[in-house]
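Q: What structure does this chain adopt?
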Amino acid sequence: MTVAPLTGDTATALGLAPEALPLFLREEWRAIVGDGYERLAVLNEDGKALAAFNLHRTRRAGLRLISHPAFNPHCGLWRRPQAKNPAKAVGEAKKLHTTLAEYMLAQDGMVHLAFPPEETDLQPWAWKGFKVVAQWTYRIDLGQGLPTIRAGYEDKQRNAIKKGLAGGTVETTDDPDRVLNAVRSTFARKGKGLDEATTSALLRAFLKPGLGFAFVTVENGKDSAAAFCAHAAGTCYYLLGGVDKAHGSNGAGAMAVDACIGQAHALGLPIFDFEGSMLPEVERYFRTFGGTPTPYFTVNRAPFLTEVALKKKLRHLF
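A:
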């Protein structure tokens, strides 16, 4: 197996129908992420693509970093299923991850790379000296049906939505600026900088029929919250959301998220993924929607002296 740049149309190169291409391998990400973005394939001896994934090369505090791209919860690894025999299938997966680990060892810089939840066997990375660390997202099985899903919400959240709907409305929108305004309001309230160019590019790329949707909560004639999702290959990802506290009720944000869950169900998608929930404040909020805590794994490595320095602030990763 060899790792090489994946050129041309990704779906064609992988032998997939366009609608079967996972969200984080779609072509739109090249323009959204910009400089440093790479899409790579793992090829067999005949040059056939066995897997594909994304990387983003950046600098943080003057240090080279190789990670999954911005707004991507993981590297988007797709791999072609081959063996039906369980033991052989495990062996093929280990061989693939060994190839990936060896490739990353040969790169210059720190590595912090997350994999999809379906990739549960990252033992080859540990064998190669990477630190394998679990993180969590929340996922909702949309096959339960909406009444069951909503009955699983935390009581306080369910009541906040009910109270909010008594005085406000939730409407769908294809206007990226309405979503961006809500996101901007949340970032400003928390004192964090927002990369508006990348956020706007993400919305304009995926807020389209068949790719994504957004809902806005309207209270007292003003937008008070918004939530945006994109979907592909059976999974709907909650990518962006925000609340304008000056105009929003306690349930404003949840009303928009609930509408997104309802839309994903209406589209017949099997899974709703909150795209990571490692920040305690964010985790507590996502938890109120009754999803299942779902682990996914990151692999981490840095040059020795850099790793020692990083342990002061990022001990959980390095």
